[in-house]
């Protein structure tokens, strides 16, 4: 596995891949890798000849009161995991490389970013789209892989690709879960044992919504009530929102169908966790 941190070196290496007519895939991450990230690598390998993974904790997507300084980092461990899974190039730029002095241009999303995560974290998606746009520009991948757990992020990246006519395929990969259903997340490291036990309530609430839908319930408000009732018995779980939406722009719906997305965000101790399902699929495998 090659590791680079300079843009000129990255482009030089990628020119060699293009000369060899190798199809390139990109897996953007903020590091502290887990099996969810590594499944993205597997899918990237399936879809392309060369897998590029970036590790960059992007300061633009953290608000002033968020956890940028304490976001978990372990580059040595990340290197080992990436190499074991077959990443060809690890791109690990510094903040100064990605945002040199004087850099001020940003990619600003439209109204789809104003609700749910965007309302809870103002400016977050401007930071996300800016860094993803830079990585697309630097790597020029044929395909880029993202996780479905960050469903609003995936929707917005797809919108950016469509609206800006970017020649990249966006692959959204099912959420990877612990045996009790908790979605894998780097922020799970913040949970103490009791908080970790209660965190499984998030996927439990999504499972309850799916089961109610399968039993014939079609009212979004009834599904939300079912979820809130189940979460109420877990005192460590402080719900920020429950969103029941259509899939393209994540607008709220009153009546649900198989392609309806049910998403939630909650704070548990020092961790802020998100999760979602598509009702027709239930919890991802």
Percent strand equals: 15-25%
Subunit arrangement of the protein: single chain
Strand order of the largest sheet: 1-4-3-2-5-6
**Secondary structure tally, helices:** 9
Poorly predicted sequence stretches spanning 5 or more consecutive residues: none
Distance between the termini: 29 Å
Average residue pLDDT: 97
DSSP helix fraction: 25-40%
CATH homologous superfamily name of the largest domain?
HUPs
Overall body shape = globular
CATH structural fold name of the largest domain: Rossmann fold
Tell me the Rg in angstroms: 19 Å
Order of helices and strands: EHEHEHEHHHEHEHHEEE
Helix/strand/pairing class, anyone?
Answer: alpha/beta
The main pleated sheet reads as: 6 strands, parallel
Judging by the overall fold, what is the CATH architecture of the largest domain?
Answer: 3-Layer(aba) Sandwich
What count of structural domains?
Answer: 2
Text of the CATH class of the largest domain: Alpha Beta
**What is the number of beta strands?**
9
Can you put this structure into words, describing what you see?
This protein has 285 residues and is an alpha/beta fold. Strands 1-4-3-2-5-6 form a 6-stranded parallel beta sheet, with helices on both faces. The model has no long low-confidence stretch (mean pLDDT 97). It has 2 domains: 2-173, HUPs (Rossmann fold, 3-Layer(aba) Sandwich), CATH 3.40.50; 186-278, Pantoate--beta-alanine Ligase, Chain: A,domain 2, CATH 3.30.1300.10. Helix 8 packs antiparallel against helix 9. It has helices at residues 7-19, 35-47, 75-85, 95-98, 117-120, 124-139, 151-163, 193-214, 220-231; strands spanning 2-4, 24-29, 50-55, 89-91, 143-147, 169-173, 237-245, 261-268, 271-278. Helix 7 (151-163) links the parallel strand 5 (143-147) and strand 6. The chain starts with a strand and ends in a 7-residue tail after the last strand. It has 9 helices and 9 strands.
């Amino acid at each position: 596995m090659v590791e680079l941190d300079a843009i000129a070196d990255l482009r030089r290496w990628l020119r060699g891949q293009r000369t060899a007519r190798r199809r390139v895939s990109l897996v953007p991450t903020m590091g502290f890798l887990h099996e969810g990230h590594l499944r993205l690598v597997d899918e990237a390998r399936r879809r392309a000849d060369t897998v590029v993974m970036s590790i960059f904790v992007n300061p633009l997507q953290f608000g002033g009161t968020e956890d940028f300084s304490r976001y978990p980092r372990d580059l040595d461990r990340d290197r080992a995991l990436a190499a074991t899974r077959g990443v060809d190039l690890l791109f690990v730029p510094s903040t100064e490389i990605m945002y040199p002095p004087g850099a001020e241009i940003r990619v600003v999303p439209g109204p789809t970013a104003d609700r749910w995560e965007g309302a809870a974290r103002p400016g977050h998606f401007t930071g996300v789209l800016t860094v993803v746009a830079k990585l697309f520009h630097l790597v020029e991948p044929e395909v880029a892989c993202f996780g479905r757990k960050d469903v609003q992020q995936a929707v917005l990246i797809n919108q950016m690709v469509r609206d800006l006519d970017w020649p990249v395929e966006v692959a959204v990969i099912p959420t990877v879960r612990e045996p009790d259903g908790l979605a894998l997340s780097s922020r799970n490291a913040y949970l103490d044992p009791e908080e970790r036990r209660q965190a499984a309530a998030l996927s439990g609430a999504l499972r309850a919504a799916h089961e109610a839908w399968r039993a014939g319930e079609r009212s979004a408000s009834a599904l939300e009530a079912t979820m809130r009732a189940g979460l109420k018995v877990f005192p460590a779980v402080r719900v920020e929102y429950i969103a029941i939406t259509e899939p393209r722009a994540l607008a709220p719906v009153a009546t649900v169908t198989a392609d309806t997305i049910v998403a939630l965000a909650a704070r548990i101790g020092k961790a802020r966790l998100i999760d979602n399902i598509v009702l027709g699929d239930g919890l991802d495998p």
